[in-house]
Amino acid sequence: MKPNEQTHQVLVGNAAFQAAGKAVPLGGGAPVVVQSMLNAPAEDAAANLGQIERLAAAGCEVVRMAVPRLDCLDAFEEVCDKSPLPVVADIHFDARIAIGAAQRGAAKLRINPGNIGGFEKTDEVIEAARAAGIPIRVGVNAGSLDKELAAREDLTLPEKLAQSAAEYVAYFQSRNFDDIVVSAKAHDVVATIETYRLLAQRIPQVPLHIGITEAGTLFQGIIKSASGLGILLEQGIGDTMRISLTDDPVQEIRACWTLLSALGLRKRGIELISCPTCGRTQVDLIPLAGAVEERLAAVERPLRVAVMGCVVNGPGEAADADIGVACGNGVGIVFAHGQMLRKVNEDEILDALMEEIAKL
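Now predict its structure.
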């Protein structure tokens, strides 16, 4: 069994989601759950709900919302009441906010052991989550470790992160609270990989939320996240994931699904098979491939679409595509599963391909 088949399953969803059978299972062999985080002002319920609608359309399954102040709880409650997705309350520094969020409809709480106020304050949060019937994520970050643990020179950073998380898991379990999820993130890819490997060994029963924190802007963030999370997911480590980007949160969801699809773990939307172009290419392939990707961005069903630039990289190399086009000198051959459907002029390629896709 892989690690994520052995973890204890928790349900992410408040009482209303659970009653409706819409709570999201996390762990225990459930599919890896895709999530993101809202970045609209915490006091603006309408803005956050609008962002949730866009994220849900992109394939987000759980969404996290920062609740930085007590006076944001009214907006948070409205978001929880109206959201089509379970909403996780992200809390730092003030246990009172976590307690209030649990009472106002949070689907899960996320707290940071390094700044929530110690075990005494954690007890209060545990009891609030227990009363609400929701799980807690213990989120450890390299930048906010407990001061005593951070100062130890006999431990590596991955060991510090794993130890901090494991200590809190043990404490939660001593309080007879097992509906916990753990994350232990760093911006360093190698350190994050090693941390999660240690966690999978030390607390194999606990579902893991994986991610590279503060990964950067779109290009760098996707590269760092894919390299780190791809390794972990291939090894069966990780029950839920977020690809953190300094960008529109919808891009995080697209990146998550693309990574899961590339690893064969979950399929959603279009997989574009396109050649990198070379001196044999006789059509303007780069904008064509971009236009195909844009036109099909809203498609949810798994579909392999090939956009090939010449006869060398034509139907032969893309024979496993559901549909595609191989381009020649000002023309394109639309094919499905390696078999020719029609031949069209270059300016007709995009529309012809879309027409054939609509028939599938």
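Residues 157-174 form the longest helix (18 residues).
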